[in-house]
Amino acid sequence: MKHIDKYTIISILSSFLLFSCSEGLEIKSGSMILSVDKDMHMTVELTGNDAPLTEKSQTEYIELEEGTVSDFKLKSRDTRVVGDTTVYTLIGEASMPFGGTIKKIQTISVDRRFPGMAVTEVKYVNESSRDLHVVKWVNHAFRVIDNEDTPAFWSFQGQSTIERADWILPVDSTFYQRNYMGMNDSDYGGGIPVTCLWRRDQGIAVGHVELSPRLVSFPVKKSKYDNYAEVAVESAGESVVAFTQGDTISTVRTFVSVYEGDCFAPLRQFSEYMQVSGLVMPESEPAAFEPMWCAWGYEREATFAEILGTLPKVKELGIKWATVDDGYQIAEGDWELDTKRFPGGDRDMVDLVKKMKAYGLKVQLWWAPLAADPGTKVLKENPDFITLSKQQTPHYITWWDSYYLSPVDSGVVSYSRDLVDRFMKKYDFDGLKLDGQHLNSVHPDYNWKHHPECPQYSYEQLPGFFKMIYDESRSINPHAVIQNCPCGCCMSFYNLPYTNQTVASDPTSSWQVRLKGYVYKALVPRTAYFGDHVELSDNGDDFASSFGIGAVLGTKFTWPKNNPKVKADYRLTPEKEVIWKKWFSLYNEKMLSTGEYVNGLYDIGYSRPEAHVIRKDGTLYYAFYASSFDGDILVKGLEEGKKYELYDYFNEVSLGEVEGPEARLHCKFERALLFQANEVKK
Question: Could you name the domain of life of the organism this protein comes from (predicted)?
């Protein structure tokens, strides 16, 4: 919770003259209407939609050890205009049973550049007769009404946990998910600070708009006995905060938005709002859109001979990147070369990179920063690098069997910068693959040698560590590609400005490849999205899921044989080679990853079969997905009055001619149907 901030703005008009407080008020932003009554209860709705979206409720309140304070009476209000933004200030009071009141000062800001969105901050002043204790504050606690859809709702929920669950999922019957933005497990935390909940006709999104991560939750709840679901933004509630007489506490800046369609539009709007506020997203290098091969098919025991022996086939398939993966180092933290594999030390790595580049390939290096194994040289020499719990025990990264390093410790930063220089300058790698779920967030750090006055400082400043890596890499190679792969996590929004290649990061299904791409296309439309190794998709060969969503294709095949120490079989057999060659050829021909994702034509939740559209060089490319489908699909987004030939470019067959703006096509397919709409010239 933060202290009250002073600000100065010029008052343009006052609503005191227009309304009495007993009447409440309506705040409009685009097609959104936010209604506030005399008890400071609120609803939000879309104009022109007769079906109510939310119930009237007290949406902003605080929970104290002494009880919940939510019965506020609106006492006054004011309206001010600052540039593009109209700021409504509402002042209310809640009487306390032991005497005095809690004052509530709520600002609601609407920016004409972001219609349908309202940003809120609430301050509470203890004007009661007692010192109190705040457990948590709550903003935007809306009850969203079930409109008898099946399922009742679809949702985007941006948390990261060890389950590596879907980010887009139905909410039906009985459901609960906390969506905490701090650490949820030893290795997993952070995410995208937005929750979207929608019906077929309209939806609501809530989130926060601070410029660094905050320890808040976005819980979603539903009971099978209720005709509504609940959303909210809540403070962490993990420690009680003293709230003495006369003291003021403040929430973070949060928002609510309403919209038609699925989560794409509100996520895009959130990202644009944050970019206007100062978090600018990168535009990827052309090289970030080139297809990739990774030596991870040979796993940690990969030999020089295996890597170099595979590269002729890599080049033959039209792949442009090759990645040296985990296993070259002594240990996590000690990133010197393992002399068993590199007896010549740095000279051997320089030689390997040169030989890989001789095939005309760009070369990427895997790295897991901020992790150091117990007993490593770096920790023996720098024991204060690690972060500590309240109990003064090291925070442990279960996956790597490592300790967390502090992202703000000057020694850690300097040591990591030196590693970037070695990788990018001395070894001459073209890019880095930053890997590990631990990259997404860090625990509050109680190591008194770091920042004892604010344990969450390391959590809030983590993005600055990735900015250092990004800036240092590109100072050495202005065209460096920096991939951030927080395995299984919903990538922290605050790390996105410092990567120019997002990734599906160990998807558990083809659906995850597509839904993650969908989210990143909304948030960072100019940043390349890598669909990860195709071997992680359904059946290990679902290129169509990456291709149709506009993802960069990737693979980790082995050739001509596997590493004998690896149990899985990733061999590129002659039968597989035919398929791999066709997909990579099509990818290099069409480069849909550089196209524009077309939003608003289909709903990723309710539309069946699932559908996506990419616009590239004036042509629309459609992708439909289902385990199996036999029926009619709607081809949307065509220009009215124009005729099109629908051409299945993978199977090289015409599906017939149709006329815009919308056409019905009967089709039968398994897994995927991909086609383009070619205008038929008169």
Answer: Bacteria
Q: Residue range 508-516: average pLDDT?
A: 99
Q: What is the mean pLDDT of the chain?
A: 96
Q: What's the structural domain count of the chain?
A: 3
| Interacting residues of 343 by C-beta distance below 8 A, sequence separation 6+ | none
Residue 197 contacts residue 206 (beta carbons within 8 Å): no
| Enclosing domain of residue 431 | 286-369+416-438+467-572
Angle between helices 510-523 and 264-277 (to 10 degrees): 40
In this predicted model, what pLDDT tens digit does every residue of 52-93 receive, in sequence order? 999 999 999 999 999 999 999 999 999 999 999 999 999 999
Query: CA 154, CA 183: separation in Å to the nearest integer?
Result: 25
Establish how many alpha carbons lie within 13 A of residue 279's alpha carbon, considering only the half-sphere containing its beta carbon. Answer: 22
In the chain, how many H helices and how many E strands?
A: 9, 38
- What does the pLDDT read at residue 682? 78
Which of 190, 267, 264, 164 lies closest to 494 in space, CA to CA?
A: 190
Which residues, 6+ apart, have CB-to-CB distance to 18 below 8 Å?
none
State the maximum Cα–Cα separation within the chain, in Å, rounded to a whole number. 82
Q: Is residue 600 part of a domain?
A: no
- Does residue 555 sit in the same domain as residue 630? no
Contacts 24+ apart (CB under 8 A), 393-399: 395/186, 395/442, 395/443, 395/445, 396/186, 397/186, 397/187, 397/371, 397/436, 397/438, 398/185, 398/186, 398/187, 399/187, 399/436, 399/437, 399/438, 399/487
Domain stop point among 572, 599, 626: 572
Residue 405 lies in a domain: no
Query: Residue 90's closest CA among 8, 15, 141?
Result: 15
Choose the final residue of a domain: 258, 277, 296.
277
Backbone angles phi, psi at 421, to 5 degrees: -60, -40
* Co-location of 85 and 175 in the same domain: yes
Buried-exposed string 21-56: b where 16+ CB fall within 10 A, e elsewhere: beebbebebbbbbbbbebebbbbbbbeeeeeebbee
Q: Quick one: CA torsion of 222, 226, 228, 234, rounded to 10 degrees? A: -40
E strand or H helix at 244: none
Check residue 22 and give its pLDDT: 54
Helix (H, G, I), strand (E, B) or coil at 381: helix
> Are residues 433 and 542 both part of a single domain?
yes
